[in-house]
Amino acid sequence: MLLAACLAACGGSQGHDTAENTTAGHEALNARVAASGIGLFTSLPILWAEADGPGELLAGGQARHWLRDALPPPDLAPLDVLADADGRLPLPSGGTLIMAQPRPLAAVENVALDAWVRGGGHLLLFADPMLTAHSRFAIGDPRRPQDIVLLSPILAHWGLELQFPEDQPAREHPVQLAGQDVPVDLPGRFAPIGENPGCRIEDGGLLADCAIGKGRVVAVADAAMLDDSADWGERTRRWKGIRALLARVTSPR
Known about the structure:
- There is one protein chain.
- This protein is an alpha/beta fold and 253 residues long.
- The chain has helices at 2-10, 23-34, 54-59, 66-70, 107-118, 152-157, 232-249, and strands at 38-42, 77-78, 96-100, 122-126, 160-163, 173-177, 180-184, 189-192, 199-202, 207-212, 215-220.
- 27% of the residues lie in helices and 20% in strands.
- α5 links the parallel β3 and β4 (122-126).
- It starts with a helix and ends with a helix.
């Protein structure tokens, strides 16, 4: 399993690696999310590969995305909507949600997400203003991942603005994020707006860490680290990055 192999690979880490790369760190993170699991709300092909229709999905044969083995058990719980019939986000209070390049939210979903976070939820958000991941489907095809994230209402409510610096080269390159080397490609940056002393902007605007009520939001202005990769070393770096971000968002602030 990728998880077991990465545990061994990360055990000998050096330099800027955090305690999350130790066995104790992994066990602590596993314990924090074991009770409630992790929800996933995304347009990216993480739980299911891109497919031309239900028949292709049911036929199987798609490779398992590395992210599913990088996360603590139990497996990811997929969410299609963020508000149930009662207008509540369908995850336990104090649970963990990964939103990775989501579709635009309906008004009721913005309200449900905000209430869930303020009640003690932990949100790890990947919001990419210019997605560079390859897709087999053309721009405008509804089967394609969300190319430009559209979350301005909820971000502004939390005191954040997602900006896109246009004067940057289009190439994947490594950066430091939450103490880890992770890849980015045409990343955005967060800027504070309004009054929210609970938000910290770090790593040149690539990361925002916000206390929202009783909960916490850790937001990343790029999604390239979630791309799949056949290179073992690159998968390990991405695996370590996602674990470090999860450790942060589920820890007391």
